[in-house]
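Reviewer 2 asked us to include a model.

Predict the structure of this chain.
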Amino acid sequence: MITATQDGSSLALRVLDAMPFAVIGLTKREHVSLVNPAAETLLQRSSALVRGRPLTELLPEDSPLMDFIARVRREGGVMSARSIRIASPHIAPVDMDV
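Predicted model (structure tokens):
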């Protein structure tokens, strides 16, 4: 059982780091606030290089993922989608479930 500790954020970061799934945290202005190692692999960029940057520097503004993010922001709640294509000049095309 996991219980609250003084360094609960440290535990959360360790869990995110261990996840095999890419996790990308965004601010309200679509700037990258967090990436785990799986996301670094997907983006082919280190966390230090992408944190604080707009997501549109990594993905085209007209990408299906950016459309999905806009829809989530607009409609709220919990949403998921299957086979969203992620690609850019430095990211090989891949279909992902989000």
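The CA atoms of residues 84 and 96 lie 5 Å apart. The longest strand covers residues 91-96. We have added this to the supplementary material.
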